[in-house]
Specification:
The N and C termini lie far apart (86 Å). The protein has 12 helices and 9 strands. It is globular, with a radius of gyration of 25 Å. It folds into 2 domains: 4-244, Spore Coat Polysaccharide Biosynthesis Protein SpsA, Chain A, CATH 3.90.550.10; 260-321. The protein has helices spanning 26-37, 57-65, 81-91, 110-120, 162-165, 180-186, 197-206, 237-249, 261-282, 285-298, 303-319, 321-338; strands spanning 4-5, 16-22, 44-51, 71-76, 96-99, 105-106, 125-135, 177-179, 210-222. The protein has a 9-stranded mixed beta sheet, sandwiched between helices. The protein has 345 residues and is of the alpha/beta class.
Length: 345
Amino acid sequence: MHPALDINDTAKVPCVSVVLPTYNGLRHLGATVDSVLAQDFQDFELVVVDDGCTDGTADFVRTQYAGRPQLRLVVRANGGISVARNTALELARGRYIAFLDHDDIWHPQKLGVQVRWLQELPADVGCVFGEFRHWDGQGEAAFPAPLAWPPVPVPALSGWIYHQLLLTNWVLFSTALLRREVFAAVGNFDPDLPPADDWDMALRASRRFQFMKATEVVALYRQHTGQTSRRVLASDPQTRLRESMLLRYGATSPDGQICDLRSLRDRRVAAHISFAASHAQMGGLRNAAQAEAQALADGPLDPRAWRSLLSVLLAMTRRFPERLALHTRPQRRAVKAVKPPADGF
């Protein structure tokens, strides 16, 4: 079923389409939307995708923003963040595409500076992005300074950066602006990969396009317990993604730059350790043990892997003391049974 397009379906073709998926994020949504509407660059549409919300999001948007012609509300059944983003991409009309999570905040100059930057860069630069600052939501959503022109690039993360993206996802999509042609070339988000779907998109795009990163903070990345990135999953999509990319493309960017193999090994080990720790804390000791085995296989001499293994073993002893007791008591009884009687016979 095609999702319902609700309010403000205007005919004007905007320069930028802002994609904002939300699922039960009403608590923070107003501040996020307001940070888009407050941009000093106003040639955009804001496509809010209500991904099956049960917290009154659609009613809030209709009531609060009915008079804002730039805002389009799409209401659909819950499908996850990747499906919601893809829904918005199908409806987007802008030449450039920006993304914003429902709890993040934009610098008021973010769109204006990035649009101008992309317009002046060569066509094979498909994405510009910037820094972000962690924010706990307390106090005013303030930025350190106005954005400078021209932006100052970060050399290590500008140009052909596939080899750098193999280490980790350096691109927070709430800080990025992409050409529409990127999605025509590499396709949409993979719905089977959250929370690594944005990393997958960045990796695939970096095989076809250059990226440019600016030094300045353009978004506040809100930290709270309900974030998708903080949820414990049964499998590790980030490790699966990295390994699949290595098998498909290798460790070399299109311009010949090679991923630092020592750094890659360190990142692999760190990912296994992080996954193991998350499951150990939640009692998922089988998954934790499997991740520890992978960490030791990738870094047999890495002290982090051995320290992490010790932590998991300690978690096992705390989690299952009764099992340890059951295994040890019969051994003690067996020792007593063979002890010679006191009278010597």
